Amino acid sequence: MIVGDLSFEEFERALNGPGVGLRIGPFSVRIRDGHQELFAPTFHTLYSEFPLLPESEPAEFRIQLRDPVGLRRWWRRQMFFRLDDSDPFYPFPAGLAYPFFEWGLNWCIYEHVHEFFVIHSAVVEKRGRALLMSAPPGSGKSTLCAALVNRGWRLLSDEFAIIDKTNGHLIPIPRPVGLKEQSIEIIRKFAPESWIGPAFADTSKGTVAHMRPPAGAVARMNEPALPAWLVFPTYEANAVTALSPVSKASAFITASENSFNYKVLGESGFECHARLIDQCDCFDLKFSDLNAALDLIEELPAARGSAP
Amino acid sequence: MADNELLWRVSPSTRLVWRRWGDEFIVFNAASGQTHYLNALAARVLQYFQEQAATADELVDDIRSSIPQGGDLSILDQVRELLTRFDSLGLIAPQNP
After folding, report:
1. What is the distance between the terminal CA atoms of chain A, rounded to a whole angstrom?
2. Is A277 on the interface with B (CB under 8 A)?
3. Is there a contact between B37 and A250 if contact means CB atoms under 8 Å apart?
4. Staple A39 to which of A34, A130, A177, B59, CB 3.0 to 4.6 Å?
5. Is the pTM value of this prediction over 0.80?
6. Vertex B81, ends B78 and B84: CA angle to 5°?
């Protein structure tokens, strides 16, 4: 059973009762409350394809979006992101409940998940070969990711490369793609058929919105992919769009700096990262023109001559 | 003891894990958890001191003996810079003779 099998009323009742449990790639999440007018409908639509977790099954991450006690329940209303018995963040404006849920879930993953090697990276796949786009926020990786997904690449994640340390496989976690500022309009125009949720203004990252992951990506979220390309994108207005090879040692250092847990994992992280670098052709991508950047990326599989 | 008579080596208790891609190297210090990017000369210096204790002059002689025309005169300066850098990173340490 998937989220979309529930009517909105059933979904909201579950949210306000025992919570809604979801399987998201290798993780399970149960979320409760979130009494805010935009939260439930946005969540219901963006996660419509995700499998529901039976009520009896425990979830790894148990999240509650709760109202505060006192004045801030009504006046300039705030909410808390609660993980079990802790409130890891300051309260946030209630109107931003949905983006805070997404950021909070990101935090849950990168703070707690050390059985995997985790890099800050978008990951998409074609014919079994995965492209990692690793970069700090604001580099355009989510825009590229959303555009590639709308050109037939499978979404694994727009935020995390989750790597199985035992075999180097990339584990999908195809959550909604977070878009910021101008990217929202760019992707709305690029892929008018995609469903992009409400725009939330005045967050710490500016205006944000989320693109619903394609049903096919969610249906295949138990299918890992093999890393093939590691690209470091940088959006730069007026730059000549170009893909330039990067040495593997240099790529190793850059990607390790973009990892959430390279230092935590010690030697096993080093070995896992070295294997990733062995498996990948590595490039810098500077771009100002989205379509030109996509065309360069589309040429990668042919250049590698990689049959599935 | 003068600086050029100091014997250097990688501490036997320091485990270094290496990867090489072309002329570039990445070395992971399992003791400190630090990762270092090395060019070919830096890698050669560190590997040399991983195998034995030696002075900077002995190392430079070894490098020059393997380079046609005796190598560049600046190698000694580069090696001394590397020794200082590796020492500050805890990769090598002076030994008692």
Report:
1. 31
2. yes
3. yes
4. A34
5. yes
6. 150
